[in-house]
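Hello forum,

I keep getting stuck at the same step: I have a sequence, I want structure tokens, and every attempt I make locally crashes halfway through. Rather than fight my setup again tonight, could one of you with a working pipeline run this one for me? It's a single chain of 287 residues.
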Amino acid sequence: MIHAASRSALAELRERLNTVLPDLGNTLFSWLPLVGRNDGDRHRELAAELYATADLLGGQPRLRRALGDPSTDASARADLARSLFNGRVGDVALGLIADAVALRWSSPWDLTDALEILADDTLLAAAEQEGQLDAVEDELFRFERILSGSGELAAALDEAGVPAERRIGLLRSLLGEKVNPITAQLLEHAITSGRRPTVMLAIDDLLQASAARRERSVARVLSATELTPEQTERLAAALSRLYGREINVRTAVDESVRGGLVVRVGDEVIDGSVASRLAAARAAFAG
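Reply #2:
Ran it on my machine without issues. Output:
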């Protein structure tokens, strides 16, 4: 989690990413043949390099401190990063890593987290470019609902004592070929990163980041039966008026709701379900 003192550095780093993404196809992996490769592939390669760098810093305390210590000279830190990663990552990733370590972070851990966030942004940008951002959001939300209904599965994916390869194998067996490759890459890093407390919290962060790309918020809506497209549209319009900004509605069926809706926007929950009204009635009689 990025601390408040580091948010300006993260904002600056994101601006840098936004300037290089449009030209990604012309500059990334210049030593590799481009035949058969598309921009989505290059986005995913860049994200993989940024994730790998964050993982390396997470596991190397001395290196993390050397690159993220705000008391040392910024240009010296950037030069060190270039010398360490030159030839190991592509030119775009190298430039972003050097830019990142030259910024002032409140702690070296914030640098690590920022590189992970930058990788997430790269994948979400790829989904947006391919017209698949809505599909990726929906897949993340539906996987979140699966985990919410199975604490045992969520715990298995979060178990740090289990080798990452086994957890990735479990995830892939669940996803199969049914999700966008971008969704799969986001989830694979979510379950293997040492900086993501749980996969559920990681998915929540990803959904918020995806919504923020289009300057809107996400409403997670649970209902006893599936909402029609017309009902979903009316609900989105009503929530947008209520919150004064565009709200993107993601719906899921939960029979425990019994009737009505449970709506969550950020940390706020609007519980209009029959189940909650019955619980309130029982509490009133018990009192």
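The radius of gyration is 21 Å. If your local run keeps crashing, start a new thread with the error log.
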